[in-house]
Design a protein that fits this description.
The protein is mostly helical and about 220 residues long. The chain has two domains: about 60 residues, Orthogonal Bundle (Arc Repressor Mutant, subunit A), CATH 1.10.10; about 140 residues. It is built from ten helices and no strands. It is globular, with a radius of gyration of 20 Å.
Length: about 220
Amino acid sequence: MLDPEGQQRGVVTDGPDADCGLREHRRRETRRAITDAALDLFERQGVPATSVEAIADAAGIAPRTFYRHAGTKENALFVDDDSMERLIASVRGVDQQGPAVVRAIEQAFLAQVDAFDAQPAASHARVLRVRRLVLADPDLLARALARDAEQVQELTTIVLHAGDHPDELRARTVVTAIGTAVRLAYDEWARRAERGETVPVRSLYRQVRSGLVDYFAGAADG
């Protein structure tokens, strides 16, 4: 049970490291509860008819706690997903320059793809539920697209600082191409999953990437 500040009752730990770990655990629990509540309510009654107060109540937290973690009801559906933050952090941790940074970005995306492919069916079913809601509601779609744009900006800045792509347009093009190829692979995975097919996202990414390489190689020859 979460108290009004999103903290779990009855947990006792000792030491600063344990306290830090417990706070992070509580934060993740609270964010998961917010997303689960928003997902259930959005499916049952729609996004327009769902209030922040209703999501907070279903999550077992106070509205002020909701605002601290999610900000808006649209963002509640994504607040449990920290994949973007983890990807950016992993790329920033690469002590390399030039093309190696771009490769590191692609490898970071692929690491997340592999982790996704390894998830159980229940997790994949949850992803499909979120995707259906996003495609059906313009406000949720706008928030999802804004998250993508934020990720592109962060990664573009990293590439620029690496020094290989001093031109911002070129850097943004490379980052966008990688991210778009990954997103297309996920979209195709979801399309097939809705038909009951099981295909690894990594294999779909390879197909998308290969198609782009073949096209631009042919365009250059022409």
